[in-house]
Amino acid sequence: MPEILLSTAYMPNIQYIRAIATSGTATVEQWETFPKQTYRNRCEIATAGGRMTLTVPVIKACSHQLTRDVKISYDTPWQSKHWQAIKSAYGSSPFFMYFKDELEPFYRERTEYLLDYNCKILNTLLSILDIKANISTTSDYIREGDPQYRDLRNVIHPKVRQEQGKDFYDATPYPQVFDSRMPFESNLSVIDAIFNNGKLES
To answer: How far apart are CA 190 and CA 116, in angstroms?
Structure first.
């Protein structure tokens, strides 16, 4: 079975985590030219007002900057804003109190590089979910079509329409904080499943 190839992701969505859990191993691309408007520095959560995007601001030194070299910008207080949004969205969820202490440090402490920040978050999320997986980063850029990999770098993307049961995507509803008055929001950051259910739904 080809190894899963992923882009880096900030608070990755359920599809991303399912891909890792199913495969048990994954490689994260670090040698690509950093693209805009992807999950590499953004995630989505469910709030009282609907789906909300949280974006980590980054410093782009040039148009051909590699993902591994992208630094996080702290010119604005985005950490406190993100954590406040997460608390507002999930403060009343069944498992928020159980897991908030493991995630809150990511909104207090500073990490220079986006890739390092995302890797730390990913390892914490996998630990919370008790998913044992071998995660590595690429030693060189992997070109599209490499038969060694199942390439999901541009598949798990906010602008790509997903289909039920394809590429680890599952839109089966589970309990959410605002489901009594809001439609189910699928494939959010995995923290939505963690805070609402304590785990990923099977």
So the answer is: 19
